[in-house]
Amino acid sequence: MKKVFINGAEGKMGKAIARIIQSRPELGLEVSIRRESGQAVLGDFDVVIDFSTPQGAQEAFSIARKHRRPFLTGTTNLPETFLFQMQEEEKIPVFYAPNVSLSVYFFTELVRQAACMFPGYEARLHEIHHQYKKDAPSGTAKKLADVLELPYENVTYERTGEVVGTHTASFVSAFDEITLTHEAKNRDLFADSAVHIALWLMKRESGFYTMSDYAKFKLKEKRK
Ligand SMILES: NC(=O)C1=CN([C@@H]2O[C@H](COP(=O)(O)OP(=O)(O)OC[C@H]3O[C@@H](n4cnc5c(N)ncnc54)[C@H](OP(=O)(O)O)[C@@H]3O)[C@@H](O)[C@H]2O)C=CC1
Ligand SMILES: O=C(O)C1=N[C@H](C(=O)O)C[C@H](O)C1
Question: Is the ipTM of this complex over 0.90?
Fold first, then answer.
């Protein structure tokens, strides 16, 4: 069994990840550490999965480096300096994605292609999330804005109810409008993917990885 250290373990994502690990023994994983804010880390672990806060992610990264264990974070709104530090990492395998779902990765690629297909159109982005979400616009929306070369200030957003995460890219002309929407139906979309990425990350060399690396691996695996 490989031991998983969940950082932000009592949060919405942390709980979903623990539930998936516990309900699927065939994955060969067990939760060995459930860390919340300020807690010391006692015990052994083979990989860190972090869905917490920018501060929590940086703390968990330091712990992973100290113990030389792979580190995966999906926490959003991370400072640029920390993103740069992860990108430069040489001691351990590090993975970061503002959205760990493969379907969102391919949705982003669709949006990229649509932007090329409708060059004269005005691109718009709108996202909707649950009332508890701390950051706005979402990490996924910022990634989509980068793809569309839109300033983040132009992204519109709503915070309402229990909405898991909806992202809409529109291409608007005076004559028509093309709309692409990704709607997450529940958090297992992210939690299940995070667990599989962690399994994959444990087999990687030291260095920085993103969804593009994971998607390439999955596509290769499919072709076999
Ligand atoms: N990449 C992706 O695909 C996804 C990313 N996310 C991102 O993941 C993050 C967490 O989301 P979510 O689970 O909904 O948020 P929650 O607020 O439900 O959970 C965050 C948890 O982290 C805990 N925490 C706070 N500070 C620390 C710390 N210093 N060390 C360890 N734990 C800490 C919180 O404790 P307390 O409540 O006591 O402060 C809370 O239990 C967000 O940044 C969100 O945007 C979410 C879903 C998918
Ligand atoms: O906080 C969330 O819930 C989510 N956060 C990520 C983001 O900011 O893009 C991913 C997903 O949309 C859910």
Answer: yes
